Structures are given as C-alpha cells and as structure tokens.
Amino acid sequence: MSTDFHQRSLSLLSEQLAEMGKSTAELISQISAFQIAVPSWALGAGGTRFGRFSIGGEPRNLEEKLEDIGLLAKLTKRTDAVSLHIPWDIPKDTQAIKEKASSLGISFDAMNSNTFQDYGQALTYKMGSLSNADAATRKQAVEHNLQVIEIGKSLGSKGLTVWLADGSNFPGQAHFRKALEWTTDSLKEIYGGMPGDWKLLLEYKPYEPNFYHTVIPDWGTSSLICRQLGDRAKVLVDLGHHLPNTNIEQIVATLMHQNLLAGFHFNDSKYGDDDLSTGSIKPYQLFLIFCELIGGAADGAQNWNSISWMIDASHNTKDPLEDLIQALEAISQAYAKALLVDREKLTHCQLSGDTVGAQAVLQEAFLTDVRALVREARIQSGGEPNPLAFYRREKIREKLIAQRGKNAQASGL
Ligand code: LRH
Ligand code: MN
User: What share of the chain is helix, strand, coil (3-state, %, to 5)?
Assistant: First the structure.
C-alpha cells in the first residue's frame, strides 16, 4: 500500500469521523495507548490431542520467547508485555531475563500458575489441585501458587492468574460443595500470600479437561469466590470459556457493574475452547464487548486501567507470529470501532425504546472502516504500516528456522 493511498484514505476517514463528532487525533492516542499482553505459550505451534505440526524456528527458551514478543512489539506497537506460565517459563537467571525484557521494551503482565499438569511435583493433580480431597495435594497446589507469586515479584509482575482444571467426569465422582469449599479456602491462602498491590485473576471455564463438572465453570461461581477473597480478586474472562451462544458482552457489563472484571484472555471460537485468532470468527461480538467496556468505564462502573488485556490462543495451522499480528490488529480495530459509537444517541434510543435507532447507532460504528486509523496510530508509534507484509517480505520465519532449526514434530494422542 502506498503512503499516498494511506494518506488519502486517512483524510477521507477523518472527514467521516468529524461528521460523527470524533477527533482523529484523540482516537489515535487512545488506540496507541491500548497495549495487549502476549502469552509466552502462544509463540510455538500449539496442537491438539490428535497431533501438533511444528512450524520451525519456534522459541526454544524464555529468552527466545521474549525476542519474538520484542519483534511483535516493534512491528505492531500494540503489545508491550508478556504473560508467563509457570513451570513452563521458570527463569534460569532472573536478572538476565529482566534485562533482556527491558532491552526489548517488554514488561511482565499477570503470571499463570499451573496445577492442571504433573511436572514432577510430589503429588499428582490427576484428581484435582486446590479442590483435591487430599489436603496434602491442596497444600502442594497452594505452595506452587505462592512460588509463582515469588517469581512474579522478582520480575515486576503485579498479578496472578489462576485457572483450575479441577472437576469431575462422572456423576457422583465429586462432592460439589466440599470441592468448592476446599478451593475457596485454598485461594484464601494464595490471596493472603499476594503483595498488597497485586491482583488475583480468577479464570472460569465450563468444561475440559473435565467433562461432567468443573469447580469454577462460570462467571457467577468465580464472582462468588472473589467476593470471599477480597477486592483485589476479580474475574478473568477467557472468550473461549463459554457455552455456545452465551452473551459475553452482558457478562462483561455485569462484572463491570460490580467492579469485578479482572481482564481478558482474547481469542475466538466456533464451538468450544478452540483458542482461534481473535476476531476471526465473531468480530461483531468482540465489538459489542468493547462497547460495554468503553461504556462501563465512561460511566465510572469500573476503572479502565484496572483491567488486564491479554491474548490466549493456540496455533495449529497458522504461523504463530502471523496469527498474533492478525489478532493484535483485530483487537485494535474492534476497540477503534467501539470508540466511534455515539453513546449519547445510543442512550437516548435505549431510554426511548427506539430499538431500530439503537441498532443503527451501533452498526454505523461497526461498519466504519477504521483500518487507516489503526494503521496511522501504528505509524505514529514507529511501527510498520503493514506488519504482516513486512514479516513476509523480510522472510522472518525462514530466518528464525535458519537460526533455531526446524523444531521436532510432536505426535499427539
Ligand atoms: C485454559 C487456559 C488458561 C491457560 C491455558 C493455557 O483453557 O485458557 O488460561 O492456563 O489455557
Ligand atoms: Mn485462558
């Protein structure tokens, strides 16, 4: 795309925005300020139980993961932080990792604990972790989370994300109320072990890997537990963790209403927890979610800066870096479109029962092509006009393969 074409499409859009009463300069500063953390585990090929197909040039250690996120930051200017997962990302040399990250302009967002796998710890998590009927296993899981907090403190993180696979596969297998009580008591110990300026992000998920019940299956259960922990415990919304046709934008509005929204794991899905590229399946839903976020913050329901923005995706067929470039772009576009909503006109339609008018207000914003705006924000921040084109033109994947090797194909099942 020529610079001239970009300038002409931007000036045309700016005229349109002025008609809508929107300042291009203000929108560009809002879009530029909106940074999304990238998960350390989404830089390689993910895979399913049926197999994993390596892409080659995948990061072999934490240093190389930081380099990949540094590249994304440089090209897109839409990410400035990484979310680590322990024990997958235990730093061998914390000081060196901190220096590497800061040299790449990357900070450490929420840390993720892992009590859904066995990785050589003394007691297995097969039958659960914080909800396990065995007190020693619960204690082990609590201690793991406290260790994750210590690692996070040494890196400058200010949050702990807890997602539990805990649940059951058959009726009668679990005692629902005891499991909930053990989980809540365990989380109280973890919450108590967090520094005063940290937040606990409690992630819910309706099913998988357990397929009959999950101890924390939905926003309601997560909210109930957070209320018992304290006001620095809030609910993490992973977009893929909802049963089909769930109204996620309403959940977001409800959590903001209660000042209980911790943040997001952005991705998209057609059926289950598919962890597909954000905005690739349901871009209108993503737009509606941002409409609730902007409205909730504008009305003072919850402070915008108290919310964490993270991607959580898994790449089975796409190049992970290309996928993340597309996801960062889709999130920025959804946010930019939602900023165009005439909130005064929308509120008037809502209060006067003008349903048609309300839809027209939303769709005028959603159907506005904001690509020139998001591109201009990136250019003004020193990023690439077209990161994907640059990534391919510079043959970055080929260079990574030459540098890091083809990485082994791992068979699944
Ligand atoms: C669970 C989840 C959680 C992570 C894991 C990698 O499905 O969304 O956020 O720990 O994916
Ligand atoms: Mn998640």
Answer: 50, 10, 40
